[in-house]
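Quick one: structure for this chain?
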Amino acid sequence: MAQSSSSEQEAEQRARPPLRLFELPHELLERAVALLRPHEWGSFARASKTAKAVAQGTVGAVAAAEVSRRLVAKVHVGNRLCERCPALEITVPTSVTRIGESAFFGCSGLASVTIPPSVTSIDKKAFEGCSGLTSITIPPSVTRIGNLAFFRCTGLTSVTIPPSVTSIEDKTFHSCSGLTSVTIPPSVTSIGICAFGGCSGLTSVTIPPSVTSIEMYVFKGCSGLTSVTIPPSVTSIEDSAFRGCSGLTSVTIPPSVTSIENSAFRNCSGLTSVAVPRAASVLYDAFESTTDVSRYD
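Got it. Here's what it folds into:
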């Protein structure tokens, strides 16, 4: 009988509609939290007591010793707020200005997120491991996207970075293997280490003319990348920048480039020939798999 009861409970849980946390009125959130079971809300299981609603739009602001996660705050979607939560759709409130570190970490079932124009910062690891997320619109109010923000979002197919962003930080889109296109605005002046590493579905990318250096591992393992044009603003191509881009057949290196570092184009088996500025310093294994490396003035 106990086994049958357990099976019935599991069936009932599967039949529940997806939880849309931020769409709930604040007065109902206390009841919603009270009904959550530990296995349904990963990080919330660590809270020793049920969160209580607090006036003026804050929920879960109970003594820190009792509850380790804030559920909703007026201006901040807190660190690890919805870590591993089961929600399929999330609408961030228009009062929120920041999506905190690891806020939606590991929410693999999350398919849709609406980010309001009030948000200015998407912090480190904010959507890491959201493998079910297929698209996201980043509003023009966002000025910063932290490192690892979309790490391992394998379902993400396209992304447009708004012109308010000036830097793509380290590993921001690392291992987004489903990503086929990315729009990088001219406002971006730096693309961090391994920012697009492991994006094997990426077929083309336009590096804006504001970028001066192509950092280490930035496109490493982008095996679907077939061609790339490096703008005349770039002076250096760092270690392993395009390493393992086996589908790369064409690359244009401008005369502004003065250094090409270790393994920059190593294991680019499809790149059979390349022309390099005569004045550029090229380390010995930069084009390890390329048979025809010529120089031009």
